[in-house]
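fold description:
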Amino acid sequence: MGESYEDVPVDRKMVSIGDTKTVIILGEFLIPPDHPFDNVAFWQHGQITPAMFIGRIEVTYEYKDNMYQEKKMEFRSAYIR
């Protein structure tokens, strides 16, 4: 089966990890309409424009079967209210 995608208004960006979804409303920031990326980009942090970071991914590992394996992955928004 393929993945299903949700429509998100253009003025918002959605980060989805597992069953958890976080929506960042771009209208709350003074971002010119041509600056946001089409998708959220992740390096060390989640980035939506060349200069704006919206949060980070935290990965928890556990030592199992003689190796470290991902136990939990969460998105931590920089804009929590």
In short: The mean pLDDT is 78. The chain is about 0% helix and 50% strand.
